[in-house]
Amino acid sequence: MKKTMLFTAILAMAASAASAQSKGGRMLNPDKPEDALEIAKRVQCGEADGKPAVYHWAGKVYSRVQGEPDRHLFNGEGMNIRQCVSVDDPKRGKGWRLVSREIMLYLDPKTNEIVRQWENPWTKEVVEVFHIANDPVNQRPQFPIGTDGKPYKASFRREGRWIFQPFEAPLFYQNVLQGDYQDYVGGKYHAMEIFDFAYEADEMLNTKNATAYPIVSWVRISDWMPWMKMRGRQGQMVFNAMGNKLKGYDELPKVLKDEIALNYPAYTAAPPGDDMRPNATTWTEFKKHVDSQRAAERKK
Description:
This protein is an alpha+beta fold. Helices cover 23% and strands 34% of the residues. It is built from 6 helices and 11 strands. The chain has helices spanning 2-22, 33-44, 182-185, 201-205, 254-263, 282-299, and strands at 53-64, 71-89, 93-107, 117-119, 126-128, 132-134, 157-159, 162-174, 188-200, 215-222, 236-246. It has a 9-stranded antiparallel β-sheet with strand order 6-3-2-1-11-10-9-8-7. Strands 4-5 form a two-stranded antiparallel ribbon. The longest helix has 21 residues, at 2-22.
């Protein structure tokens, strides 16, 4: 029985590969470094340099404070617009890098309207909401050979028609809103971002398809946002959202397109392929915002 099942599976894979070849494509093999890298590119971007890809996600934002129930603080609507560009390395081969910019809006959990002013339920202070708008959010180049000399390998897991690709990003680095002595007194930015991609194997692996359209879930566990003015209070924020890669910018929800048109016009396109600016975060962008406000106050 086991031999029959194995033989049937081999025949199915052979038939799928033959079908792809007959239609002008081929089936990518996740076990080959070059193909695994191409799959990762198809997940993140598209089939050609300079062709943008747009991800959308929506979900909820909670507080977590020891000794009290979690609070549903906001809903969220987010997007990222990106492109991948080819890069070459004499030792590591042909690869690609991603350049992008992203937005996430905080929405009222009952009305789903954009929140501009927010009454902090712990301090009772009314604060200005500083929505996530990071430009750029770029990635290091990816190659078939890693910096350690080992072949590229991604964490793919296939189950029937689906391929799953989990990715965790533990973050622990200097908070730009703190001083120069964080190694001694704390104040580091501490968070974890979790991205879980799922996509149909036939669509992703068959190169006759110019690109593929994965589903993504995103979780972030982090410190309080700086604009909340929590002044070091104990607690965390939990973001939970799901979304997918869209066919184009026009498929974004109206609330995002309207806000981008009003306040973030650059976010209709990805950064240029040769963008080498340092990455932006909520903390770096909020610091710029506060510094600008303080400078304006001094001029009065």
